Structures are given as structure tokens and as C-alpha cells.
Here is the input.
Amino acid sequence: MERFVKKVILIITISLCTALIFAAPKQKGDRWVCAQNVQLKEKASVGSSKVAVLKYGDQVTIIEDKQKWIMVSLKSDSSVKGWLPATALTDHRIASGASNSSADAKEIALAGKGFNTTVEEVFAAGFNTDYSDVDFTEKQTVSYESNLDFMREGGLKVEEEKE
Here is the structure.
């Protein structure tokens, strides 16, 4: 019986510690942009005015965290401040094309997909896969205004800044 009680106490302790770790607010610090051409917003809203456009791999410093939106300043120019969707940031350092990395842009893009050139060649040879549609899709862009129209037509609530 005593052994059972010790196990229960151990399980409860581990569960509480785990819950506290995941419930703790994210710490301020540096993050990296993990999306291409993400708009830095004046307010934490999709419809807010654009402050700047950040690129994949840009390093930012966290100012405020509202879970879905994070206020940041650009590490290379701290006067550039605004809000980004939390999904556009990662805790992991990203090597940008401007770094001293020996990887070229294609290798970085493949690594982001979990591939390298050799793996892609083996995968494509084994499955006779044509990536042209994927490459075409990745090159497509949609304007900010079109995105807002799409959201409105789909019945999504879009908080727009009043000018």
C-alpha cells in the first residue's frame, strides 16, 4: 500500500510540474521569423496597418506576448516595432541567405521541408514525383486586400483599423 501511495504522489508531482512548465508565459527574448514576407502590424489585428515586412530568418526581440499576437522589435533596427502572429516566429535560429552559411537558398528551403538535395533526389526517383506543381504554388502571391476580401466573403470577423 505504501508503495502505491508513493507512486501516486510521484505521478501527481510530475503532472503538476509539467502543467506549470506549459502554463508559464513565454519569456521575452529573441525569436526568428519563420515565414516569408510577413507583415509587421501596428496593432494585434489582421486588419491593422502594415508597419513593415519582415523576411524569413529576420531576428526579432519580444516586447509583449498576447499568445496569438506578439509585439516585437527588429534586432537589426530596434526602431522597427509592431505585432506579428505568433505562428510566424520560432525559437530556433534560422540561417538566412545573408549569413555566413555555406548553404544556398535552395538548400535552406529543402531543409525547411525536412529534405536535403540527396533525400529529394532519392524520394523523387523512388516515387516518380513531379514537384513542378509544388514549385508553382510556392511562387504564388496574394495581395493583402485579396486576403481581407477572402476572409470577409468566408464570414470571418476581420478587425480593421479605423482611419
In short: The mean pLDDT is 77.
